[in-house]
């Protein structure tokens, strides 16, 4: 539909009459120029639900900024966390903001429909994609606000999981992801790899000590995974109920029997 023509706008308004929800992914002001703002749509269907996805919101100094998913990741500060630990920023390399905002919008629409069912009225819902993306980063926001500490690139480091990384395996650029949170998982991991002497070191006696000595621990785990394929590591550790999975590339995903099924 060409919304620059009266015919195109007219067809949209005909669709609104038989619709429950109107989704607007334009920059602020565009729908107003087409006379398709919420107040315009209410005249056509009083209980219509309209949801808008402005990049940063309909108000404020950046309200008219033009964005795509990757630019929102930069503006929200998400990109500043993505990169090898302590090294330069690499960024998300994907439009995560688009996916994230869509999930927020899906739930918001459900609530709008529920509200209409109970009270008989529609509403205009705004999901600012920047705000939705900020909600995925509570730790950096809280640290900056309360402790004046700015997170940098963190790699795969997790603040509460001492083992949380991708480890090299046999083969060309093959890796396995391993994550261990609890002492039970740690004991299962140690037993699965044969209880080598280094697992009994005082430096790794509890979760706090393992976190403090994470880099040394990662090096030791790398030595264990290096002569095994990702699938071999997964099979060994999954039997011990330890979260381990190959870092699959496109070819791996295509030929994986689970994905094929």
UniProtKB/TrEMBL annotation:
- What keywords tag this UniProt record? Transferase
InterPro entries with a match to the protein in the record: CoA-transferase_III_domain (IPR050483), CoA-Trfase_fam_III (IPR003673), CoA-Trfase_III_dom3_sf (IPR044855), CoA-Trfase_III_dom_1_sf (IPR023606)
Q: Name one Pfam family in it.
A: CoA_transf_3
Under the heading SUPFAM superfamilies, the entry gives:
CoA-transferase family III (CaiB/BaiF)
Bilayer-crossing regions: none
Among the GO molecular function terms of this UniProt record, one is: CoA-transferase activity
Q: What is this protein called?
A: CoA transferase
Organism annotation: marine sediment metagenome
């Amino acid at each position: 539909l060409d919304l620059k023509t009266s015919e195109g706008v007219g067809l949209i308004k005909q669709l609104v009459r038989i619709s429950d929800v109107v989704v607007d992914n334009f920059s602020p002001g565009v729908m107003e120029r087409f006379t398709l703002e919420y107040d315009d749509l209410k005249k056509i269907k009083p209980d219509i639900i309209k949801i808008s996805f402005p990049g940063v919101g309909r108000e404020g100094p950046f309200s008219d900024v033009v964005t795509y998913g990757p630019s929102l990741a930069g503006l929200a500060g998400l990109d500043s966390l993505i990169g090898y630990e302590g090294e330069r920023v690499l960024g998300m390399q994907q439009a995560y903001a688009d996916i994230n905002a869509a999930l927020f919008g899906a739930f918001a629409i459900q609530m709008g429909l529920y509200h209409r069912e109970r009270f008989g009225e529609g509403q205009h819902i705004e999901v600012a994609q920047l705000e939705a993306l900020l909600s995925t980063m509570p730790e950096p926001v809280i640290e900056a606000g309360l402790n004046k500490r700015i997170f940098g690139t963190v790699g795969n480091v997790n603040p509460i999981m001492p083992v949380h990384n991708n480890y090299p395996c046999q083969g060309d650029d093959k890796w396995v992801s391993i994550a261990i949170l609890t002492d039970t998982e740690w004991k299962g991991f140690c037993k699965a790899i044969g209880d080598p002497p280094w697992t009994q070191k005082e430096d790794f006696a509890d979760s706090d000590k393992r976190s403090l000595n994470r880099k040394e621990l990662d090096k030791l785990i790398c030595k264990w995974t290096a002569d095994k394929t990702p699938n071999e590591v997964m099979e060994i550790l999954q039997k011990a109920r330890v979260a381990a999975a190959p870092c699959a590339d496109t070819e791996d995903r295509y030929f994986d029997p689970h994905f094929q099924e």
